[in-house]
Amino acid sequence: MRIDPAVRQMTWYITVFVILLSVLMELVFLLLHRLDYTVLLGNLLGAAIAIVNFFLMGLAVQKAVDQEEKEARSTIRVSQTLRTMMVFITAGIGVLLSCFHVIAVILPLLFPRIAIAFRPLYEKLHSNKEG
Amino acid sequence: MLELAIGIILGCCALGAGAAMIAGIGPGIGEGNAVAKACEAIGRQPESRGQVTTTMLMGCAIAETTGLYALIIALLLIFLAPGRFVNILMRTLG
Predict the structure, then answer these.
(1) Tens digit of pLDDT per residue, chain A (131 long)?
(2) Considering all CA atoms of chain A, what is the largest pairwise distance in Å, rounded to the nearest integer?
(3) Contact state of A75 with B35 under an 8 Å Cβ cutoff
(4) Cα gap A115→A121, rounded to integer Å
(5) What is the rounded CA–CA span in Å between residue B94 and residue B88?
(6) Cβ distance A113 to A50 under 8 Å?
(7) For chain A, what is the domain count?
(8) Is some CB atom of chain A closer than 8 A to the CB atom of B61?
(9) Cβ–Cβ contacts within 10 Å for residue A28, how many?
(10) How much is the CA Rg of chain A, to the nearest whole Å?
(11) Of A19, A113, B36, B87, which sits most exposed with the smallest number of CB within 10 A?
């Protein structure tokens, strides 16, 4: 299956932003003297779930835009349900196991939303560079 | 009596988690509608496919955050809250 350039570009953007915010989060933990291997493992798990979730959503959207209206609607609903289950199970494992820090697992799940909030700024800077 | 109190705490946490997950229905419906309209738009103007897909992705991600908030609340209520509440109860009872 060929990945749409728009999906690839957005996934890269989200990945870079999630990594940057993860480093920032680690720094905050370091400043609070709470940084240990559980935070690192938790952050790794949370960031991986956030990126994979976004990528799978991108693939679902890419598949849906080529379909009929009704079919596209059901494709997205099924994808959303399955992805929510995936996030629930993996984040649940992260919360349950003591080798993961709870906050470090949960916080990265919200990083893509922050990345999207900064997207207009990124586009403005990008267009200024080109112009 | 203590078992009853713990049972009520666990039941309330489970009910709360279930109620929180009702919010998970919204993003699915919203995303479905947005994609359906995007299909319509691409059908009318096929050359705008890339732009529509990018906008759609951002819109879907924003819509999904609501579901994620609910999911996080549910996770905390299922896995963390019962232990904390039971500890508070035990401390109160001595």
Answers:
(1) 788 888 999 999 999 999 999 999 999 999 999 899 999 999 999 999 999 999 999 999 999 888 888 888 899 989 999 999 999 898 889 888 999 999 999 999 999 999 999 988 888 888 887 76
(2) 54
(3) yes
(4) 10
(5) 10
(6) no
(7) 1
(8) yes
(9) 13
(10) 17
(11) B87
Residue type, A83: R
Q: Which ipTM value was assigned to this complex?
A: 0.82
Hey, are the CB atoms on B31 and A77 less than 8 Å from each other? yes
Q: Are B27 and A80 in contact (CB under 8 A)?
A: yes
Number of domains in chain B: 1
Distance of residue A30 Cα from the nearest chain B Cα, in angstroms = 24
CATH of the domain at B36: 1.20.20.10
N residues, chain A: 131
Ramachandran sector of residue A68 (left: φ over 0; alpha: ψ -120 to 50; beta: rest): beta
Residue A41 and residue B44: Cα distance in Å, rounded?
47
